[in-house]
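U., I forgot to send this yesterday:
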Amino acid sequence: MVDGALSLGGLVGVVLSAAFVYWEVGRYAAPQVPRSLFDERKEFFAYTAGLFLGLPLVFVYLLLTSAVANGALVASAIDIALLAGATELAQWGLGRTVYFGSSEATPFYLLGMRAGVAAILIVGAMAGYLGGAALTIDGLGLVIATSVALLAVQVNGALVSIRTASAGQAPTGGPLSGLAVGFAAFAVLELGSALGTITGIASALLVIGGLISSYRRLRRRVLATIRGPVEERTAAERPRFGRTDF
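Result:
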């Protein structure tokens, strides 16, 4: 049963996270736009880096689910803080590397990394919920809703943790904001699952609904402002008479 849960978790985790990268990050790549706003090869490497970063984080997540199941509130709070804090630290480090953090397209790579982390956490969720229990409709609904919520927590957290400033407004976001949002989201998820299957599904849907709205708002603020690489034109390609292309 454990092998089956791991296989199902791996399938669901990869499908959900890869679908997110394909649709959400892919919308900023050619042919959806005239010119890709990021390096597709770096995006793939960032997703792969997230998979490896998720391996130690999933052990913290399993400790968290165990602590919640046993009613250990202090241990649960510590595990949530470790899980959210380690993820923020990983994003902070990745965004300051020469390879991923040296261009305007860094937010795309951070999204890919966090999607990879979500894929591994989903494997842990599947193994934790289905590894020692018979598969039921309610249980399957809970684990699917939790899996989508874990992906939402990660990708929304990627954008929340990027400090941005709008015209006439003070800068918002940053690692501390990402830590606070991640802590609250994990707390709601785990508290709901501890109170029962139906409550767990409702909590997961609540997290999904709230974070999707936040993600869409942040996507317009962070990703829509990226213009991508500008290539030097030859004399023959430049607009004549000093005109400007729009």
